[in-house]
Amino acid sequence: MTNQPTVQYGGLKQVFAVSLGLFLVFLDSTVVNIALPTIIEDYGITLSVASWIINAFVLTLAVLLVTFGKLADMFGRSRFFLIGLVIFTISSFFCGIAPNEEVLIVARVLQGIGGAMIIPASMMLVRTAVPPEKTGLAMGIWGAVGALAVAVGPSLGGVVTEYINWRWVFYINVPVVVLSYPFIRIAFKGHHDVRTPFSLDFWGIATLSAGLYFLTYAILQGEELGWTSQVIYLYFGISLVSALLFVLIERKVRQPLVDFTIFQNRHYVGGILSNFLGGILLMGTLILLPIYFTQVKGYDTLQSSFLITPLSAVMLVVAPMIGRLIDRIGYFMPMVLGYIFTVAGFVLLVNLDANASLKHLVFVMIVLGTGLGIIMVTSVTVCTASVSDKQVSLGSGIFATSRNMGGAIGVSLFVSLTLSFLNTYSSEIVDKGITRFQKAELPSQVTEQAIARLEKQRSNFFEEAKKLGKFKISAEFRQQTIVKKKQEVLQTLPQGAQLPPQVEKEIETKVDAELQSIEKEVNDIQGDIRDDAETYLVKAMTKAFWSGLILAVVCSGSLLFLRKRAVDAALDTAVTE
Predict the structure, then answer these.
(1) CA distances in angstroms from 332 to 146, 346, 368, 558, listed in the order given
(2) List of residues 6+ apart from 205 with CB closer than 8 A
(3) Is the terminal CB of the chain with fewer CB neighbours within 10 Å at N or C?
(4) What does the pLDDT look like over 324-368, one tens digit per residue?
(5) Half-sphere exposure (CA, 13 Å, Cβ side) for 396?
(6) What is the pLDDT of residues 510-565, one digit of tens each?
(7) Which residues have a Cβ under 8 Å from the Cβ of 201 and sit 6 or more positions away?
């Protein structure tokens, strides 16, 4: 028997310390979204410019995650994590004091750099913080904290923006890190980093970064520029060429940035596919549900952000439980359970309607949150526990990149599908509204005016619905109606007779009452049209949710990669030794 050196584990205190850094990074990936309208108003900028406040952070993460996972091995994981946390904190302060959008965007890039240092290092540190038999619990805590941050971001952003100031969305990171930094240092006390020799594949980094940048940018800008635009085709083309060059380079260099043998690990591939799916479904759902709450159910932004809480709360509860279960029975059955709950959640979402009760909505989010929570925790545990120590940094970087890319695709996919169907439904809603006005017994001029207002919104009813406004009969039409009524009364009087002032007043009063009744009827019809619009909005969203359901069913095929075979058991034993 060979003597093995005693391994010192940081324990759960290290897991929680590392998870704090992850929480802040993931929180900043969603908390800014809710504050964006206020930032636009403060700076006086357009939405296209403001989108870079978000895109700068997302793109930086996407480009650097794999490379920084490699660098963490060279400089030391705990040191890399702590430096990343400091950079993230300082850049958060600069985000808060940014005098204009240019400074804010640059500071967000720095935040992305800090985040790209934290995420892969944190995954590696959590894996090595506990013995192999407790990896599931540790990764469950790590995954739960990450999911919680993503889900509570909108709520926290809404509260801070509403009651304090949008700048505190960034400032809040500073006191949190400053106050917790001593605890983090204590958690790493006695921790010894194992470093690898410094050797970087610069051409590999350049081609991989270019490929990831243009791919992510194309996904983020696809809806705004048009998915069939030449610019988007160009970005996808550059991304594809860069990826091909990257593969060619990696096969020739002595120490490649990406060791492709990692994809021969069946368990790792299964985990990556599920992780990618989890990113798509979580971010796609989180982008649509607030729209449903505000535009269909009539809740304000702050209320809708709180209504998302059950989705995150159940993830927080489920994740550690599933982590313990993984430690006992392995990955396969928990992942099966995750897919069952996720598919059930999307079955409920595709049957959503405008009249759904609050109790039903909470139930839907609990079911979906349970499924996504299980998938995310199981996938992160698989991807970190099933690879060798030599490949854990690479595995962590690829894992984080796939989650980030999945989130970007989820937002673009769900929003694009919803808007596409809304454009189709827009003309249909206008046609139904015109039919309603034509069937109503209204004066021809009023009918023409109401239809003309509706026709202006044929191509973009959902964007312009608020401009429909309350219908008001023009003063000119009122005067014409009064004159007509007076003439009718005069015809009943002897020739040359004049209308007494009292009769004129009675006519005007009667006309006003009639016109008010007409206005009410028109506004009632417009109300019915808006009700139709709400129904069609939910219908469009369910089309997007159908894509989520289909993806969940298709990706459940990744379960085949997680089935235990004799050769896999032997590999797992080799990994843990």
Answers:
(1) 22, 21, 19, 10
(2) 67, 257
(3) N
(4) 888 888 888 999 999 999 999 999 999 998 888 889 998 998 999
(5) 32
(6) 878 888 888 788 788 777 777 777 788 888 889 999 999 999 999 888 888 887 65
(7) 249, 250, 253, 255, 256, 257
Radius of gyration from C-alpha coordinates of the chain? 30
Asked if 537 and 428 touch (Cβ cutoff 8 Å), the reply is no
pTM assigned to the model: 0.77
Which residue type does 118 have? I
| pLDDT for res 108 | 92
Q: Dihedrals φ, ψ of 44, to 5°?
A: 65, 45
Lowest-pLDDT choice from 240-249, 277-286, 311-320, 413-422:
311-320
135/116 Cα distance (integer angstroms): 23
**How far is it, in rounded angstroms, from Cα 404 to Cα 120?**
12
Token pair in block for residue 292:
């449903």
How far, in whole angstroms, is CA 576 from its chain's centroid? 36
| Residue the block writes with tokens 């312009």 | 464
Q: Where are the alpha helices (DSSP H) in 128-265?
A: 135-163, 168-171, 173-187, 202-225, 230-250
Task: State the pLDDT at residue 8.
Answer: 56
Q: How many Cα atoms occupy the beta-carbon half-sphere of 390 within 13 Å?
A: 10
CA–CA separation, 182 and 416 (whole Å): 45
CA separation (Å) from 387 to 207, 212, 271, 411? 25, 23, 11, 30
Amino acid identity, position 230: Q
Amino acid at 196: T
pLDDT tens digits along 167-206: 998 898 888 888 888 888 777 776 666 666 666 778 887 8
Q: Got the DSSP string for 384-444?
A: HHSS-GGGHHHHHHHHHHHHHHHHHHHHHHHHHHHHHHHHHHHHHHHHHHHHHHHHS---H
